[in-house]
Design goal:
The protein has helices at residues 3-12, 15-23, 28-35, 41-54, 109-121, 144-155; strands spanning 60-61, 66-77, 84-86, 89-93, 98-104, 128-131, 134-140, 158-159. The chain is an alpha+beta fold. The strands form two sheets. It has a six-stranded antiparallel beta sheet, with helices on one face. A two-stranded antiparallel ribbon has the order 1-8. A hairpin with a 2-residue loop joins strand 3 and strand 4. Helix 1 crosses helix 4 (41-54), helix 3 (28-35) crosses helix 4 and helix 5 (109-121) crosses helix 6. The longest helix has 14 residues, at 41-54.
């Protein structure tokens, strides 16, 4: 594999770096050191720069989602009867200490990824999350209001799909 090909593959192994390259906020020499590719650091930095030039610009879009909050959820066994089900566990409104945030609109896995990243950065650790026709995130009740604001903000700036 060429140095350029190895560099592109290494960048693609780190989605945050690829996104930052698309946004134009990366020091190419620092990226070359981070990637730790065998070869001359300046040559790797040049390969990073060339790859960045080939990537589509980073842009975001509003998912147009409406977020609602439902408190009083808890885990229930047995699967598919609840607000969110994963495997043999489901979350249902039955007086528990969890809160669900449900976003309806143009939501997909990109929206879920951005939402989870924003929540984690803010120190809100979701109990469960998923996306299908709508997006659902379950959090501890005490995190509900903060999670609602974070989710609304995240869904207002979802990265657009990139072709490159």
């Amino acid at each position: 594999m060429t140095l350029a090909g190895e560099t592109r593959a290494a960048v693609d192994d780190h989605p945050f770096l690829r996104r930052a390259l698309r946004a134009g906020v990366v020091n190419h020499a620092a990226a070359a050191r981070f990637l730790d590719i065998d070869g001359d650091e300046e040559a790797v930095a040049a390969a990073v720069r060339r790859y960045a030039e080939d990537l589509p610009a980073f842009t975001t879009e509003d998912a147009g989602a409406r977020v609602s909050m439902e408190s009083g959820l808890s885990r229930v066994e047995g699967g598919d009867e609840g607000l969110l089900a994963v495997g043999d566990e489901a979350f249902s409104a039955n007086g528990g200490d969890l809160t669900a945030l449900v976003a309806a609109g143009d939501v997909d896995t990109r929206a879920l990824a951005v939402a989870l990243e924003r929540l984690h950065v803010a120190g809100v650790d979701p109990v469960a999350a998923g996306v299908a026709d709508s997006l659902a995130v379950v959090v501890e009740r005490r995190d509900g209001a903060d999670a609602l604001r974070l989710l609304e903000d995240a869904l207002a700036s979802v990265p657009q799909r990139s072709d490159g």
